[in-house]
Design a protein that fits this description.
Blueprint (H helix, E strand, L loop, with lengths): L3 H6 L4 E6 L7 H10 L2 E4 L5 H4 L9 H12 L3 E9 L5 H4 L3 H18 L6 E6 L22 H12 L4 E6 L8 H16 L5 E4 L2 E2 L9 H9 L4 E9 L3 H16 L4 E6 L25 H12 L1
Parallel strand pairs: 1-2, 1-9, 2-3, 3-4, 4-5, 5-6, 6-8, 7-8, 8-9
Bound molecules: ligand G3I.
């Protein structure tokens, strides 16, 4: 039977996974990666603390291993992530105001330029909105340099690689009624109206028992797409097991398939044992590398809608 990537390609989409460089030498891990997925996202290797551990000293060794592995096998790369309140190196915390703004934009420029032509899509800014009901930006050192930090980052990224798809990426934007979803919709609408170069919204899609796939998930994807941007499901996992979990994955795949501008799905890891969720089982392959019911449900949905 076809792989996830082949089945997705027949619908004009991709099927990706988060990858960590330290596991590329694991033959079970690499075997599944190479067979099933056509897009890879470095799980941590492109974050600020990894790529610029000291100011002006850029380290691309681990990220390059993932990018090389992917490109040598005809896969594409999602870059994750240029700017995030979390995972920052210590030196950034000692900066503020114009010095921080300059360092922030320099980081975007240098990293995007290093990967120019090799990274297909960038998560330019990750998780910049607050949870809860305020719809406000999240407080962070970047936010304190001024509300326009996000658009400045997108302009810097576009200048450094005009061919890359530029995404704003966040979680808790799956539910249409959520204040955060509405706030991100407003930002994207405003950016499109003012010519800020945003091409895509990344909807992380971390689902669990207390946070199930919402009934209006497809409608949310449609709302983003209606603003003239692609939608990518960027960090999909569904905590659970068996038929219930399979149904969650199926519904996510069907929602993406129903929205023409939902261009691809990335799961946040390969085997359950690769997941960031400690002792969870939220992925498509079990710890032995065998496909779970959720795998077959996704494959079936990609085939049959
Ligand atoms: O590799 C180091 C190890 O050398 C060190 O001794 C150890 C001690 O803490 O840490 C190890 O690094 C950890 C890394 O994962 C690799 O396992 C970090 O501490 C840990 O913080 C890091 O967690 C990552 C997390 O983001 C924070 O950056 C997860 O792997 C990663 O899955 C998770 O991914 C995020 C997305 O980037 C954004 N959206 C939410 C998603 C899930 O939290």
């Amino acid at each position: 039977s076809p792989s996830l990537a082949e089945a997705a390609q027949r619908t004009g989409r991709y099927f990706g996974t988060a990858v960590t460089a330290g596991k590329l030498a694991d033959p079970v891990y690499a075997g599944i990666l190479d067979r099933e997925f056509d897009v890879v996202t470095p799980e941590n290797e492109m974050k600020l603390d990894a790529t610029q551990p000291q100011q002006g000293r850029f380290v691309f060794t681990a990220a390059d291993r993932i990018v090389d592995h992917a490109l040598q096998r005809g896969k594409r790369v999602r870059g994750h992530t240029l700017l995030w309140h979390s995972g920052q190196p210590g030196w950034l915390n000692n900066l503020g105001g114009t010095a921080l703004r300059a360092a922030m934009l320099d980081h975007v420029t240098q990293v995007v330029a290093h990967y120019r032509g090799r990274v297909h899509s960038w998560d330019v800014v990750n998780e910049a909105f607050a949870d809860g009901t305020t719809g406000r930006r999240r407080d962070s050192n970047f936010q304190r340099t001024g509300d326009d930090w996000i658009e400045a980052a997108f302009r810097a990224a576009r200048a450094a690689d005009p061919g890359a798809t530029l995404c704003y990426n966040d979680y808790n934007v799956e539910n249409r009624a959520h204040a955060k979803t509405q706030a991100v919709l407003r930002m994207v609408r405003d950016f499109r109206a003012r010519g800020v170069p945003i091409d895509c919204v990344g909807v992380q899609s971390h689902f669990a028992g207390g946070n199930p796939v919402p009934a209006d998930f497809e409608a949310t994807l449609r709302d983003f797409a209606a603003l003239g941007v692609d939608v990518q499901l960027t960090e999909l996992d569904v905590e659970g097991a068996g038929a219930t979990q399979a149904q969650g994955f199926r519904r996510v795949a069907q929602a993406c398939l129903a929205v023409p501008r939902c261009t691809g799905i990335t799961v946040w890891g390969i085997r359950d044992t690769d997941s960031w969720r400690a002792s969870g089982t939220p992925l498509l392959f079990d710890g032995a590398g065998d496909p779970k019911p959720a795998y077959h449900a996704v494959l079936h949905a990609l085939h049959c809608g």
